[in-house]
Automatic annotation (TrEMBL), chains A, B:
Residues 1-26 are annotated as: Disordered. The keyword Lyase applies. It comes from the Bacteria. It is an enzyme of class 4 (lyase). SUPFAM superfamilies: Tryptophan synthase beta subunit-like PLP-dependent enzymes (SSF53686). It comes from Streptomyces lycii. Its cofactor is pyridoxal 5'-phosphate. This is Threonine synthase.
Length: 445, 445
């Protein structure tokens, strides 16, 4: 039933298996509680290493843990977390990182604000409490800092000296910054025709930035080739051969939300969908907290949010399909514009299992939602935040999200990065001469 | 000896004294430990109210406190601070804000990262420990969120319903966001010919944004007129009639630096100079911590940093003058481009008293320093951060800052806001076809 997603993963797998794989890279790695990689499809276990697809069935690999259990352990763990640093490393016991991770130079993302959004709640009619998890507060102002920080630790563990990725924006900046802080070389690949501002953000950290003459798909294909070539020896591609570790970074969003609510699960979460990885890892994080006894086990609903111009998962959800049919993206929400989302089928499973939904909004609704969030809460969101807030509004209006439930909506990036989205409709109320008379005439007094 | 600075303050004072000043606005205000306003020149005390210049001598007013003392009180205070929220409100007992400030809706700035900058230290030859206080992590990505947050509490205390300011960028965004979160109206005045990006950042929070046909000086003059007019009744101008409170927000930088160092004073601080207010308040904050017994009393040196194209304080320092001669700014460091800095004379006093200095760097050095900081630490600074890091380098190279001392350099804003500064010299290492051969030819493998 997931042939489509798996087939596309399989192609990458073949290309990305390292041509040589020194024992040193898989033997004695210390990634804390991470015990192995396990296949999300067939459950087959693989030793920790720079691989991302199951050798048996080509299914995606994810990190499996040896985690403590029991109520006594839960109490000790909670205390340890609360005494930890104000960043994702407070959750080191639940992440694939060594115990001393906080002492190493890294950008220390996370523990971003969970904003009690009473004014937005009033506008939307949410009565059960509304919170915005605002990841624009991360070092390079998007949630990507979380996932890259974990990938850096995996890169160190496997002896990689160059950090790399394909990107169209946020990820390039996150990788550049993280590599600079960690003292790793970085080499990031982007389509050659990116907007000038994004190129600056990607290049300023001093790593190599390579423009590829072609589309983002061409960039990805090139990266897969590079991993299979001797040139790529020693290179950690955060979103390819380090992907199982990288993806775990999104669990920290779930941990933080629950801790910031006072170790409680919210009733509803509205999460953006690009590849779908973030949403699946948030679900994984919530389930871990339940099984560890850190939060009370109770139902929660996860809602996925897409832009209409790239809504393959939303369409599959509405059509009752298990298969996600790829689309060609056409939306201002470029950080979510993945037409063939690898984790789409898992997102469908989670939305259905938890009683949530997947919905999409038009670009116009995205812009309206960005402005609504800015006007009510003083949070200037990237287009992805406009997508989630817009979808939240739509879900409430159509009665599919219970406004009496406690709700968390994610803003995963910063409006400064997508100024173009709001620029055409955002400007001065008036332009006047520097006189009181002119101000009176403007009608703003 | 300070006639120049005072004369320019005096002009504003006359214009900005409210035409009517209801008793309700000065009578029963609760601003926590703030006891009165006191004149920095003659010491005359004035009740707390929306005034900023001494009626006796036109000197600038600042907040005077009733603070606890004694070693027992210090221990209790330290514990209370450490148990407080991860933002400036942990220091509420030392700020002009009500005790319940953290429960009110506000953007909760501060407690930004103090980054141990070992790689930058190695490049600069700092051996005693180097830290970057990175205020780009604030809600609107500049230190202005700190000062505006305090002004919001003063505005509430004095019954103002509109929050206002004159601005060329960072402050407009900070006021817009803070007012939105607090549920206050905002009306912000800018020169009409600001860059499009800055206009969007100022306007997106939904308050009124008014373009003024004229220069920034014209905008300021207009605001002074507005405060004296009945139209301005009920308006709190954060950087004019709320300035004594607003300015106190910068003390939190000093508190955080010392707490994050483990309740210890650094040996050297490098601080940018715009009006000079921030530097004077950091000094005030450090002296408060000493007198409260929260840090050990030991010498520290404060160094001021300007861009050569707007370096009136640096020039006065080098010339051995007490008077700061105004200049017409011409620099890419626009957030520091105040040609007639009101607190310039106080900055000179502090640099001389502490054994520091005031230095300036060229625009080219600013750009180099931005890139140096990005490349070594993964921090993308606004031009103001390029100024401080550039000045730090110059001070070390000329032997005026002891590299064996523990040093803190401030980055007060985000590089995303001043992309133009680095754009002309920041781009891809190479542009290639999507083939391994083309990549090999580029010489980056």
């Amino acid at each position: 039933m997931r042939r489509k997603g798996l087939a596309s993963m399989a192609v990458q797998t073949v290309a990305s298996t390292p041509s040589s794989d020194p024992a040193a890279r898989t033997g004695t790695v210390d990634l804390g509680p991470a015990a192995a990689l396990s296949c999300r499809e067939c459950g087959e276990r693989t030793p920790l290493g720079p691989v991302f697809a199951c050798e048996a069935c080509f299914g995606p690999l994810e990190v499996a843990y040896d985690l403590p259990g029991g109520s006594e352990a839960a109490e000790a763990l909670r205390k340890r977390i609360e005494a930890g640093p104000n960043n994702i490393w407070r959750y080191a016991p639940l992440l694939p990182v060594p115990a001393d991770v906080a002492e190493k130079p890294n950008v220390n993302p996370g523990f971003t604000k969970l904003v009690k959004a009473d004014r937005l709640a009033a506008e939307l009619g949410v009565t059960g409490g509304l919170h915005v998890k605002d990841d624009s507060g991360n070092p390079t102002h998007s949630f990507k800092d979380r996932v890259v920080a974990i990938a850096v630790e995996a890169a160190r563990a496997f002896g990689f000296t160059t950090l790399s990725c394909s990107s169209t924006g946020n990820l390039a900046g996150a990788v550049g910054a993280a590599a600079a802080r960690a003292g790793l070389r970085s080499c990031v690949f982007i389509p050659h025709d990116l907007e000038a501002g994004k190129v600056v953000m990607a290049a300023v950290y001093g790593g190599d930035l390579v423009g590829i003459e072609g589309t983002y798909d061409d960039v990805n294909r090139f990266c897969s080739e590079l991993i299979g070539d001797p040139i790529g020896e020693g290179w950690g591609f955060v979103n390819v051969n380090l992907r199982p570790y990288y993806a775990e970074g999104s669990k920290t969003l779930a941990y933080e939300i629950c801790e910031q609510l006072g170790w409680r699960l919210p009733d509803n979460l509205v999460v953006p969908i690009a590849s779908g990885s973030q949403l699946t890892k948030i679900d994984k994080g919530l389930r871990e907290l339940i099984s560890l006894g850190l939060v009370e086990d109770k139902p929660y609903k996860i809602f996925g949010a897409q832009a209409e111009g790239c809504s393959p998962v939303s369409k599959a959800f509405k059509d009752g399909h298990d298969v996600v049919r790829p689309v060609k993206p056409d939306t201002i929400a470029k950080s979510l514009a993945i037409g063939n989302p690898a984790d789409g089928p898992y997102v469908l499973d989670i939305a259905r299992r938890t009683g949530g939904a997947v919905e999409d909004v038009t670009d116009e609704q995205v812009v309206d939602a960005i402005k609504l969030l800015a006007r009510t809460e003083g949070i200037f969101a990237e287009t992805a935040g406009g997508v989630t807030v817009g979808v939240l509004r739509k879900l409430i209006e159509s009665g599919r999200l219970d406004p009496a439930g406690e709700t968390v909506v994610l803003n995963t990036g910063d409006g400064l990065k997508t100024l173009d989205a709001v620029a055409p409709t955002t400007g001065p109320s008036a332009t006047i001469r520097p006189t009181l008379e002119s101000f009176r005439e403007a009608g703003l007094a």
